Write the structure tokens for this entry.
Amino acid sequence: MSRLRRKDNEAELAVRRVLHAAGYRYRVHHPVPGQRRRTIDIAFTRAKVAVFIDGCFWHGCPAHGTQPRSNAAWWVAKLAANQARDEDTTHWLEADGWLVVRIWEHDDPRGAAGSVAAVLRGRR
């Protein structure tokens, strides 16, 4: 687990590359307004669009998320807390006028970037 990258991981970089190649400019690991310890993976500050690229294990993907067998009770609580924090962050940003886009790490980077681009075109 310690070898997994928390930020700038492969899925994040792939989506960022496609967005950048399409001409979009964004902020990386931008702090969530009013929440000191939380960050937005890809933030379009002028359009107020927040993009989160969620890992299947850590954020409980319905298709690929797994539950460890060792210390199962602790992991259930930990993963549930992660999902609750994700929901809280989404509600916090939406209350501040942001539009939140959540992408799973297993999603195709081109398709994910296309979805983000469509959202950005809709916000203008």
Observations:
- The two ends are 40 Å apart (CA to CA).
- Strands lie at 27-32, 35-44, 49-54, 99-104.
- The longest strand covers residues 35-44.
